[in-house]
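task queued by scheduler; priority normal; single chain, no ligands, no partner chains; default sampling; output format set to structure tokens
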Amino acid sequence: MVPLQDSYMQSRAEALQNVEATIHELGTIFNQLATLVSQQGEIAIRIDENMDDTLVNVEGAQGALLKYLNSISSNRWLMIKIFLVLMFFLMVFLFFVA
């Protein structure tokens, strides 16, 4: 009877050691998971900040492009006016000089 109880106690002790090892492994896994979640949170914050910077840059670029478009449009009118004045002087020169 004593050897049977002794083997039972030994198997129970081994089972408890296995449970303890498993709990320790789970604790390690949860610590690693917490570290990964913390790192991912930092990455998400950086991505959000980069998105804000990108939005500001895109809006600035859009403003610069609109300013350039207005500049080109006003230059077109200037070129058309110069062309019309030159055509006028050419017509006057052809009618009165020729």
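post-processing summary
- The chain has a mean pLDDT of 88.
- The CA atoms of residues 72 and 78 lie 10 Å apart.
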